[in-house]
């Protein structure tokens, strides 16, 4: 590619590069949050014991849920499996929201965080993956 770009090319490529990096940053935040949650569930479940008890989940489920969260994070972080990872992350976060709605905690901080993480999951994927932008052409 030549060293000089025409003025017509710069407006088209620059916003896509910015969008791609914004998507990567959003996705990295989601992956970090999921890895932190999965790690806590696996290695220090006592820290979340009260929340598990409030939502009606047994403590021994942390040994099952932790690896599931970590697997979802890994699938989402790998570009080739990111769509599958996003679907699984969305399902996991939807279940977390449902658990809090079930006990009457509508609008609680864990619900809001789960909702924001779910939006960031798909927003980050949309911004960093041209296949998703092709399916939902919101950016012109």
Explained architecture:
The chain is mainly α and about 140 residues long. The chain is elongated, with a radius of gyration of 18 Å. It has 6 helices and no strands. It is about 75% helix and about 0% strand. Helix 1 runs antiparallel to helix 3. The N terminus is likely disordered.
DSSP helix fraction: over 70%
Low-confidence stretches: 1-12
**Secondary structure category:** mainly alpha
Number of helices: 6
Question: What's the gyration radius in Å?
Answer: 18 Å
Q: What would you call the shape?
A: elongated
Let me know the average pLDDT: 86
Strand fraction equals under 5%
Descriptive keywords:
6 helices; disordered N terminus; 140 residues; mainly alpha
Break the fold down into its secondary structure elements and pairings.
Layout: H1 9-43, H2 49-55, H3 62-77, H4 82-102, H5 109-128, H6 130-135
Brief overview, please?
With 140 residues, this protein is mostly helical. It contains 6 helices and no strands.
């Amino acid at each position: 590619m030549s060293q000089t770009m025409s003025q017509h090319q710069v407006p088209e490529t620059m916003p896509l590069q910015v969008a791609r990096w914004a998507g990567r940053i959003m996705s990295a935040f989601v992956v970090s949050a999921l890895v932190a949650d999965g790690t806590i569930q696996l290695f220090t479940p006592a820290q979340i014991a009260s929340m598990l008890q409030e939502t009606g989940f047994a403590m021994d489920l942390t040994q099952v849920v932790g690896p599931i969260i970590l697997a979802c994070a890994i699938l989402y972080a790998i570009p080739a499996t990111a769509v599958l990872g996003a679907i699984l992350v969305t399902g996991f976060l939807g279940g977390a929201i449902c658990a809090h709605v079930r006990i009457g905690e509508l609008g609680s901080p864990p619900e809001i965080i789960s909702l924001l993480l779910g939006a960031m999951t798909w927003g980050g994927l949309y911004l960093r993956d041209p296949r998703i932008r092709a399916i939902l052409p919101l950016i012109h």
